[in-house]
Amino acid sequence: PPLARTRSRRTGRLRPPSSKSLTHRAFALALLARERTVVSRPLRAEDTDLFLAALAALGCTCETVGDGVEIVPPSVFPATADLFCGNAGTMFRFLVAIAAALPGTFRIDGVARLRERPVRPLTEALQRLGVVIDFEEQEGHAPLVVRGGRLPGGKVRLDASASSQYLSALLLAGQRAASALEIEAPELTSAPYVGLTLDMIGRFGGRVDVAGGNRWIAHPSPLRATEVEIEADCSAAAYPAAAAALSGGTVRIDALAESSRQGDRRLFDLLAEMGARVSWHDGGATVEGRGALSAIDADLGDIP
Which DSSP string corresponds to 166-218? Predict the structure, then answer.
């Protein structure tokens, strides 16, 4: 519900929408798992519904169960499939890499805006590993066709300076590679999103070793059936948190974890540095404004 206004203060309790980033990662790993997965409280929006439609096109059974989605991967993947990503860039990049690890030939496309979004650093890395990718129009862009199979392991250098999604995509696909996949990414932007990927892989029983500051080793893993609950989106939570801090109100925000690796989780620390009172408790956080806020210096490079 909307925050209540008490004179000029904002007060109330709410649960923000679930994290789209975590929902995408859970859906990707449910596809790579060998058995049933239940994703509780996923974000249901255009991008994530398109991801579910792509899973169905790949032979998965996707059914709504309570406030979640039950996903059962197929015993045999289809020989061919068309995967439509709309304008979902995260989904697009994840599927390009994952398709390389699945047996079959997969055409991946989206709306005109998605066709403008680059994926070349990822496709070049996959091609260096031996994956065959055909571009129907412009190289490094959709529409493209991935001729999948067994994604080989080995070492590859990746340019992740424009997007951490390229690295996350390879780490996900590496869970089903033929052997260990070592990725060197000297320049990485939006590092917290890679942390989200590592956490979700761990929740499915997968394994990634972080070898120094710019190398990751994804180990092929028999991902287990699991139940995963998606936490609230810290970016969405930022607005009511800021409203409380600015107005002198008190807002409780549910479904947030103090240990969350979402980039915008750090905003709560910054609000505390500025003079708001931030307390964490089981299942969420409470932000209380305590008067005028103080200016601070902060590096927001990893905070969307």
Answer: HHHHHHHHGGGSSS-EEEE-SSBSSHHHHHHHHHHHHHTT-EEEE-SSSEEEE
Q: Quote the pLDDT of residue 6.
A: 57
Those residues whose C-beta lies under 8 Å from the C-beta of residue 231, and which sit 6 or more positions away, are 18, 19, 22, 255, 256, 257, 260, 262
Q: What size, in residues, is the chain? A: 304
**Which one, of 203, 265, 218, 261, lies nearest residue 39 by Cα?**
203
C-alpha atoms less than 13 angstroms from C-alpha of 272 in its C-beta half-sphere: 12
Strands (E), 15-131: 37-40, 61-65, 68-72, 80-84, 105-109
User: How many angstroms separate the CA atoms of 139 and 123, rounded?
Assistant: 9
Residue indicated by tokens 């990927």: 197
- Please name every residue paired with 169 in a beta bridge, in sequence order, or none if there are none: none
Q: Provide φ and ψ at 274, rounded to 5°.
A: -80, -10
173 Cα distance to chain centroid: 13
Q: State CA 102 to chain mean position distance.
A: 20
Q: Are 244 and 288 within 8 A, CB to CB?
A: yes
DSSP class of residue 258 equals T
Query: Please, which residues have CB within 8 angstroms of residue 247's CB and are 6 or more apart in sequence?
Result: 8, 9, 10, 289
- State residue 303's pLDDT score: 87
266 three-class SS: helix
Positions of the chain with pLDDT lower than 50, given as ranges: none
Burial-class residue 277 by CB neighbours within 10 Å (0-12, 13-18, 19+): middle
The overall pTM is greater than 0.85 = yes
Alpha-carbon torsion angle 51, 57, 60, 62, nearest 10: 50
Contacts of residue 213, defined as CB under 8 A and 6 or more positions apart, other chains included, come to none
Token pair of 202 as six digits: 């761990």
**How much of the chain is in helix, strand and coil states, percent to nearest 5?**
35, 25, 40
